[in-house]
Amino acid sequence: MAKFITAQEAAELIKDGDSIGVAGMGLAGFPEEVVCAIRDRYKETGHPCNLDLHQGSAMGDHGYGNKFLTWDKQTRPEDMPEPEGVRGLSRLGEAGPGLVTKWTSAHMLSSHALNKQAVANQMQAWCLPQGIAVSLWREIAAGRPGLFSKVGLGTFVDPRVEGGRMNECTNDNVADLIAIGGEEYLSYTSLPLNVALLRGTIADENGNISFAHEGLINEGLGVASAAHNSGGIVIVQVEYITKNDTLPPKDVRIPGILVDYVVEATDPMACWQTEGRYWEPAFSGQIRRPMKSIPPMKLSERKVIARRCAAEVGSGYVLNLGVGISADVGTILAEEGCIDQVTMCCESGMIGGVPCALPNFGSSYNPEAVIEHSSTFDIIDGGGLDMTCLGLGECDEEGNINVSRLGPQMVGPGGFIDITNATPKVVFCGTFMGKAKMAVGDGKLTIVEEGKTVKFVKKVNQITFAGKYIKPGQDVVYITERCVMRLIDGKMTITEIAPGIDLQKDILAHMDFEPAVAADLKTMDPGIFSETWGTLAESMKA
Q1: Which is more confidently placed, 40 or 539?
Q2: Catalytic positions, please?
Q3: CA separation, residue 231 to residues 196, 228, 505 (Å)
Q4: Distance (Å, rounded) from C-alpha 139 to C-alpha 350?
């Protein structure tokens, strides 16, 4: 039976050198009060120290990290601004170096203070694909040696490339290369877990945990099982305590047999549902909000890109959207009256409804179904999506994409590697140049002031998507406001050009490699450069 303790008592249970597992996305599932108590104990006593931290997704405030979406290659680590938001795992970084000395994650940008220590080589740091990270807990729990997958081949997690290492002081690889049936796989190794730090909404007197107000069904069950079966402890922070036999059995997401300690939060602000909302009942299924008409986007190069991405969507598609411009594709679908023709989903486990952008990314308004985080990647890894639209940070002549290391900043891939591995149609989108000024209207694009940052480079800084490892029949598209490219027979090929744009002056002169140009080079639809478009529904049916 679980023991009910304070956050301070929970902090005293953590030993020097413990491996710690957390679950969630953003602030969803994050035990803020317990983590703050660990930070405070370290500040006062120097213990616990040398923690080995493992997380499956971004956990903290993305808003600060958005400053680095327009990065500059000349930016030095010491010039990075001080963090403004410190919720989430940045709390551990507030204590200074030494509390965490090993860090493994799928996404590091939102944990700002820890990120800065990793950039300064004050801890060892690794990145995993998000689906691998959240699925590996089940392998640990079951006593299996690890996880075998093709996810990550050719990317920076491949031991032949960087082995997932994110800084100079990190030596070991996150995976080994193996052969099964004559085919290449990566073997991601299991590890013993000493402590699970988790959050739910309600605990009963036996420690059964409900996620009633959580927007996500995160990987908490897997993390709890991994710690319990490794001989470790499971600590769960909740908002409310209820009597035994009052939780409906199907509402219990972590059974009490796995839970050692429960902390009832004394401050409700330690239980935010997302980064932007304390509690939105339409995220967690208590209500279904009537969705008002989404206001149209202002005509700009951003809208042009989102429209051209939407033109790749077919009726009936199961569609995954990333953050940034790719998230705007949902707005375009709504604006064009086509949102009911697709099912949008998020790798967090949301299926249907309207996925949220930051600061509520990972949640959806009025989802049709919410499944466990790790189970979503079973669908994704097997090719269960029809299309994904993701960001284009940096691209090279082999079609490789980098979104995981921008300048000195450690970002991490999130679910990028997993989602692009087996999805039949992969669309990358972003502006052609960084910091350019453009005018859009009257069916054409005009460059007002050329950009300063080249995004199409000879070789990317880090390989998050490997162009050489695309699957047979996989359609890979690169969409900017100036042109559309496709990866054809391993060659980056310009297939469409924007009206008003000169191929040599506005495109080729600003690329560090020479792409192929299709013999039947087409002009992008002038309609997407106009105030009113109106032809998406027809093209989707086709």
Answers
A1: 40
A2: 347
A3: 11, 5, 64
A4: 23
